[in-house]
Amino acid sequence: MKILGIIPARYLSSRFPAKLLKTIKGKSILQMVYEQCEKTQSLSKIVVATDHEAIFEHVEGFHGEVLMTHTNHESGTDRCAEALKLCGGSSSFDYVVNIQGDEPLIDPNTIDGLCSVLDNKIEIATACFPIGKLEDLLSPNIVKVVKSERDQALYFSRSPIPHIRDEKVDRWLLNNTFYKHLGIYAYRVDILEKLVKFPVSKLESQERLEQLRWLSNGFKINMVEAPSEGFGIDTEQDFERLKQFLDKK
Q1: CA angle 139, 114, 205 (to 5 degrees)
Q2: Cβ atoms of residues 207 and 158 within 8 Å
Q3: Which of 42, 148, 166, 172 shows the smallest number of beta carbons within 10 Å?
Q4: Contact 109, 182 (CB under 8 A)
Q5: 132-137-140-145 Cα dihedral, nearest 10 degrees
Q6: What is the mean pLDDT of residues 35-43?
Q7: Angle made by CA atoms 222, 224, 227, in degrees to the nearest 5
Q8: Cβ contact 198:213 at 8 Å
Q9: How many other CB atoms are found less than 10 A from the CB of residue 32?
Q10: Residues in CB range of 96: below 8 A, 6 or more apart
């Protein structure tokens, strides 16, 4: 099985511009992600797909592999589709894994665990982790997922799902397991080529979650429970928390 690991690395960010180039102890967030990917057992090739010369030169500076892609991609999935073509297309790989460039502490075991379920039948796979705090369950910034008995995604939402009708909200975590969605995806290469051809769906535009476009069009998304939660950098506050966490280590 040949699996291409792609790290989409967009320069602009509405909440934290150029965040991927922010450094801690001499390493950027992006370099940390790349080095975590290098620790995996399952990726046949790792490449950064960017839209900006500064990121391109930075990745070359730490001897990573990098591709320049168009600036008009609306999602990491779109950027992955272009990067796949630049890496030889669907004849060169079986799956593409989309790894978030702002997850500097991503567990290599999360990537390997996701790849371990890929069997050429699975269309799309992604990861989740149990929610342990009520504030996370109620936060619209944390995406929740409900999965079936067969570990396939039923729905993703920024709202707390499922709704437990006959129980007070502050007791929900005591009576049910809720899952946080982790933004890593594995796409079978032929499916990736199809995904980018669909227009934005109504549910996607309402929740601002691209995976709802895939569910709306009948694709199956398999869920894999990750061994750890990860640490996404969305704001300057997140970056400061990361620095404090690494200082304690």
Answers
A1: 40
A2: yes
A3: 166
A4: no
A5: 90
A6: 97
A7: 170
A8: yes
A9: 23
A10: 3, 4, 5, 6, 80, 83, 84, 186, 187, 189, 192
What percent of the chain clears pLDDT 70, i.e. is strictly above it?
Answer: 99
**What whole-number distance in Å separates Cα of residue 142 and Cα of residue 55?**
27
Q: What residue segments make up the domains of the chain, in order of their start?
A: 3-248
Is pTM, for the whole model, over 0.85?
Answer: yes
pLDDT for residue 14: 67
* Residue with token string 């342990």: 132
- Residue 126 near residue 114, CB atoms below 8 Å: yes
State in words which class domain 3-248 has. alpha beta
State the Cα torsion 115-139-78-59 to the nearest 10°.
-70
* Mean pLDDT of the residues in the chain: 94
CB 87 within 8 A of CB 9: no
Give CA–CA dist 73/239, Å, rounded: 25
Query: Looking at the predicted structure, is the pLDDT value of residue 23 above 70?
Result: yes
Query: What is the distance between the alpha carbons of residues 68 and 48, in angstroms, rounded to a whole number?
Result: 9
**Cβ 46 vs Cβ 96: under 8 Å:** no
Tell me if 25 sits within 8 A of 246, measured CB to CB.
Answer: yes
pLDDT at 188: 98
| Residues 29, 119 contacting (CB under 8 angstroms) | no
**Rg, Å, the chain Cα set:** 18
Q: Residue 56: name the closest of 16, 88, 21 by CA.
A: 21
Whose tokens are 């796409």? That residue is 187
